[in-house]
Amino acid sequence: MSSSRETESRGSDSQESASRESEVFPFNGSSYRGPDPRYAGWRAQEPVKRVRTAGGVDAWLVTRYEDVRAAQADPRLSRALACGPGAPRIGGTMYTTPDMIISMDSPEHSRLRKLVAGAFTARRVERMRPRVQSVLDELLDDIEAKGSPADLVPQLALPFPLTVIGELLGVPPEDLRKFEVWARSFATVDDRAGGEASLEGLAKLSEYIVGLIADKRAEPADDMLSELIAARDQDDRLSEAELVTFGFTLIGAGFDTTANQLANSVLALIAHHRDQWEWLVEEPARVPSAVDEILRHVNLFATDTSGFPRIAAQDMEIGGVEIAAGDAVLLSLASANRDGTVFEDPDRLDLGRLHNPHLSFGHGIHHCLGKHLGRMEMEIALTGLVRRLPDLRLAVDEGELPWHVGEINHTLTSLPVTWGR
């Protein structure tokens, strides 16, 4: 028979083990509705926190707005070191390669970014508005023609941004469905399979882009990929590997984040913030100014970070905490967006919020290249929904909604909705 002291000791060990397990990043308490409730306490008491990651690596988790924003712009925190040979596998993060723009530090990053930055300026994106609106209208026409109920993921959230980015880059419409499947595989972060799904998606995307590049070399078109090929062939500013990688990176990033953000946002509005949905229905012109609050409040990243760890290139300090060279650092955008020192009543969705310097598009050299396009797509889609389907509501209980587990984003695979009587 065990003594009471032995039992007490085992109980203490068990509690410590459970505590350590509960601290493994990413945390189970987070969802599309917001980060784990514990983040609020960490921001106040331990804003730079040591955590054990799902990959078995210790890392520093940065949770406070001021620290996250500063760290995103700090060149001493390297993305390249986090993606190079021998880099620690953090776990819960998407597989990336050293030649992807999201894996680079300056000056390599700046060289590549300049090649496409002009295509994503606010002015050029605004010129795309009529075509983007047309794509949305066609999809809503089809939804209304088929009638209630509908599934907003395959009928709207996925095809809308996929069609837009496909046309921008010059991907034939008949190939877009294949890109969707491969990009979703590439975004998988399930480390239990050794990253096999992500690597397989990466290989398929690369193989396809090689063939598409060959076609566009033979017959150039008025699209971004043709422009990138010209930069490679005429000015030698891109290596062949960079050209291939840039192609599938832009396509994957150009639709997956918007598709997930749109689906999650509609779910949040019609299921949990009905008063805010009705506020938009009363005056659809409010949607553009409301989008930033939706982006701040509705948590896109399943890991609560941008999904991409950084490695300290030298000894440094973040939020008064000493970070050693070689340490992994995770920046929680979801937590920063709920920081009460920046956002009044931060856990409340307030579509009329005026001061909203959220970090959902990032900050520093890696801030989202397509933020103007993504914001415009959100505006057009939500405006169309509140105008044409004002009484939109879930067709099933929320607990029945299927989520794709193991992606960098909170990803709904189906969103059945109904409207009318």
Automatic annotation (TrEMBL):
The keyword Iron applies. Residues 1-39 are annotated as: Disordered. SUPFAM superfamilies: Cytochrome P450. InterPro entries: Cyt_P450 (IPR001128), Cyt_P450_B (IPR002397), Cyt_P450_CS (IPR017972), Cyt_P450_sf (IPR036396). Residues 1-23 have a biased composition (Basic and acidic residues). Pfam families: p450. Keywords: Heme, Iron, Metal-binding, Monooxygenase, Oxidoreductase. Gene3D superfamilies: Cytochrome P450. One of its GO terms (molecular function) is iron ion binding. The keyword Oxidoreductase applies. Belongs to the cytochrome P450 family. PANTHER family: P450, PUTATIVE (EUROFUNG)-RELATED. This is Cytochrome P450. It comes from Streptomyces vinaceusdrappus.
